[in-house]
Amino acid sequence: MTATTTAMPVRTDGLHQVLPQVGLAGTLVGRVWRAGMPAGPAVVVVRPDGVFDLSKHFATMSTLLETDQPAQAVRSVAGEFLCSVDALLDNSKAEGQDPAVPWLLAPCDLQVVKAAGVTFAGSMIERVIEEQAGGDASRALGLRSQITALIGTSLSDIRPGSAQALALKNLLQQKKLWSQYLEVGIGPDAEVFTKAPVLASVGHGQDIGIRAESTWNNPEPEVVLAVSSRGEIVGAALGNDVNLRDIEGRSALLLGKAKDNNASCAMGPFIRLFDGHFGLDQLRRETVHLQVTGDDGYTLRGINTMASISRDPVDLVAQTLACHQYPDGFMLFLGTLFAPTEDRDEPGGGFTHKLGDVVSIHSPWLGCLRNRVTHCEAAPPWRFGLRAFIGNLADRGLLQGARL
């Protein structure tokens, strides 16, 4: 997917800067860091009358999503009032936070963070180009013309694993153009990898990281499914699956180095739970808008249209669960159509991030996730792991009475 100037701009009218198009009419749950003795993460719901802590009923987000009907479970408890929604959103930023006011964290906790790759034809072509270019952005322009002339850009019409896909594979192998990215893009097996450790993701307003050594990288605006241990899709959020194109382009075996780094996974602003007004049908038609604004005055816009996905979300969940169990549930990035090819600096150089870029990912049903780009090495180090989390819950008395 190339950059475009037709993307819908991110709203700036008060709360609608972050909230879905319907405002607070949906069932929006998340996690915040709240003050107290001791301070710690809390599961919350946002309502028209404020932000309410549900931790005494659901000590973890995983617990809430494991209930039979999470949206109904949220509506059945009042919770403890923490602050107004305005105050929470105003205080959700990378620096200058008021420690007495909560701020947003990534909305998941005990869930494993998984990601599906090469699920859109447009970005699949770009992965092939990365591979052929060996991670060198200066070679991408010439390769793009050569590869699209032979392959075309209509791969979205091919159902992965079908006889038509197999015939195309045979043809491309004869032309010596077959790629591992095409294998997972149109072959029977999806690429599903672990994006980040449990509790390592960052939330709305926090800095997101790229490695200092990377010279060719981009954001990946995606829909992220919230899935229970039973394999039920119970809600969704927005995510940024930051991609270091130069590192992965050198070798697909460097996927971990390209994808799993400090502050390299952002999710939020909330999980919107499935209810009578929002579900898979809406997600399948969702359009995710991206805007990158740089300190240099540069602006990039793009669109990720879920209707163009090559594999249905239900199939991606099934493939994730095929030979593994996730007793605490998992979050699943669905992949992106967006792969920017527009030059930012010199001709043929393509797009890459600069420090200070503000990345806004917006969709009508899920709201807006906004993060500022920094180096992974400069982002706050991840210290709050499972031992610290469980210890904090115990210190706050949340392991007695509430369901962990």
Fold blueprint:
Blueprint: E1 28-34, E2 40-47, E3 50-53, H1 61-65, H2 70-75, E4 80-83, H3 85-90, E5 103-104, E6 112-117, H4 121-133, H5 140-151, H6 163-174, H7 180-186, E7 191-196, E8 207-210, E9 217-218, E10 221-227, E11 233-241, E12 243-244, H8 245-250, H9 255-259, E13 265-273, H10 280-284, E14 287-293, E15 299-305, H11 313-321, E16 330-333, E17 358-363, E18 367-375, H12 386-395
Parallel strand pairs: 6-16, 8-18
Antiparallel strand pairs: 1-2, 1-5, 1-13, 2-3, 3-4, 6-7, 9-12, 10-11, 10-16, 11-13, 14-15, 14-17, 17-18
Kindly describe this structure:
- 24% of the residues lie in helices and 25% in strands.
- The chain has 404 residues and is α+β, with helices and mostly antiparallel strands.
- Strands 1, 2, 3, 4, 5, 6, 7, 10, 11, 13 and 16 form an eleven-stranded mixed β-sheet that branches. A five-stranded mixed β-sheet has the order 8-18-17-14-15, with no helix packed on it. A two-stranded antiparallel sheet has the order 9-12.
- The chain is globular.
- The relative contact order is 0.20.
- It has helices at residues 61-65, 70-75, 85-90, 121-133, 140-151, 163-174, 180-186, 245-250, 255-259, 280-284, 313-321, 386-395, and strands at residues 28-34, 40-47, 50-53, 80-83, 103-104, 112-117, 191-196, 207-210, 217-218, 221-227, 233-241, 243-244, 265-273, 287-293, 299-305, 330-333, 358-363, 367-375.
